[in-house]
Write a structure and sequence with these properties.
about 45% helix; 6-stranded mixed β-sheet; single chain; 13 helices; about 350 residues; alpha/beta
Length: about 350
């Protein structure tokens, strides 16, 4: 009894400390005393460092859903998809907004690490008591957890490490991605030689479609020679899902060298397929989609035109969308570049799994 009273005093003091750090009303609404006891007493997660079968695993978190791809050495790749709930869709939409930006590594100014200290301290403290680094990380981790459980249960494997590809959202940062894995006990593997800290969906999709990856990846010298001979390409990447429409006018040579600055990337969570129902008319909706698909092409009309269009998203193969995309390209280019659209909802995860396979060489 004395032990329980003593423990209760410690927990109460901890709650007061957290209320001071995070704001009393915000913290109390986020976690109850009962749930605090649960996190306080939980045991550290013990994770195996080896897969129970020889496979490579890649995840992708996209605008409305997540995918895990498990690639075996015999060439077989098995995928699973999970749709996010309303909270997941809200997080992805909010992270697409400029208003959601904040300081985060990699820093550009010498004073940024100091200015970002309080934010990082809050994340570290939450993790120290068993919480996800942020509420957003907790939401993202639930989709990854569900994908992991499906793959492990069906295939009899244990996923201990993986590569993660994510949609290019201006306020989705490397620490969010890495700590999503960390929270559920998966080692985050950063793709070797990838020059950006966040592994964007379009780099993974480019690899998933069979581009930008050397054939002899177990021989570094031969691989480097093959990559040197690869063409520098301008591509238009288009993501179309139930909740969002995104476009990117990117430059890429190898799948590890994607140039996709924020200003040449657009994301709109009001033009997903499900928005048809709330539009004044279906015709108005498709006119808005057509204009959006042309926006970057018109803004950067003096730049080299794309030689390829790569599609991602669970609604990318919709017949009307495909027709409108082609009409949009004819309107600004006079022709339609080659369109790559096999498995657009799964291709980014498949590319991530291929990166994981090559990371050990």
């Amino acid at each position: 009894m004395a032990f329980l009273l003593q423990r209760g005093m410690v927990v109460s003091a901890s709650i007061l400390l957290l209320s001071y750090l995070f704001g009393f009303s915000g913290f109390v609404s986020a976690i109850s005393p009962a749930s605090f006891y649960r996190y306080w007493s939980q045991k550290p997660l013990v994770v195996s460092t080896t897969e129970s079968r020889n496979c490579s695993v890649g995840f992708s978190l996209q605008s409305s859903y997540g995918v895990v791809a498990v690639s075996f050495d015999n060439g077989e790749t098995i995928t699973y998809k999970v749709y996010g709930d309303e909270s997941y869709r809200e997080v992805m939409s909010r992270l697409s907004l400029d208003s959601s930006r904040h300081l985060a590594p990699p820093y550009e100014d010498p004073g940024d690490p100091f200015a970002d200290g309080p934010r990082r301290a809050k994340r570290s403290f939450r993790k120290s008591i068993g919480l996800p680094a942020t509420a957003d990380v907790g939401v993202l981790s639930e989709v990854v957890r569900a994908l992991r459980q499906k793959a492990e249960s069906d295939l009899g494997i244990h996923i201990s490490s993986a590569v993660m590809a994510v949609s290019h959202l201006v306020a989705l940062y490397q620490d969010d991605v890495q700590e999503t894995f960390e929270y559920i006990g998966i080692e985050y593997i950063e793709p070797k030689n990838y020059f950006r800290p966040v592994f964007w969906e379009n780099a993974a999709a480019y690899a998933g479609y069979g581009f930008g990856m050397c054939e002899h990846y177990t021989n570094p010298e031969v691989c480097a020679a093959e990559e040197k001979d690869m063409p520098l390409e301008n591509i238009l990447a288009v993501h179309y899902s139930r909740t969002a429409l995104m476009t990117s006018l990117a430059v890429i040579k190898t799948a590890t060298a994607l140039w996709e600055p924020d200003y040449r990337h657009l994301e709109d969570f009001t033009l997903g397929y499900d928005a048809i129902d709330s539009s004044e008319s279906e015709e108005n909706y498709w006119d808005a989609v057509r204009n959006y698909l042309q926006e970057l092409m018109i803004q950067y009309r003096h730049y080299e035109r794309p030689s390829k269009i790569i599609l991602t998203g669970d609604m990318a193969l919709d017949e009307t969308f495909t027709r409108v995309l082609k009409e949009a390209m004819v309107g600004v280019m006079g022709k339609v570049p080659l369109i790559f659209s096999s498995d657009p909802e799964l291709v980014a995860a498949k590319g991530a799994a291929e990166f994981r396979r090559r990371n050990d060489f």
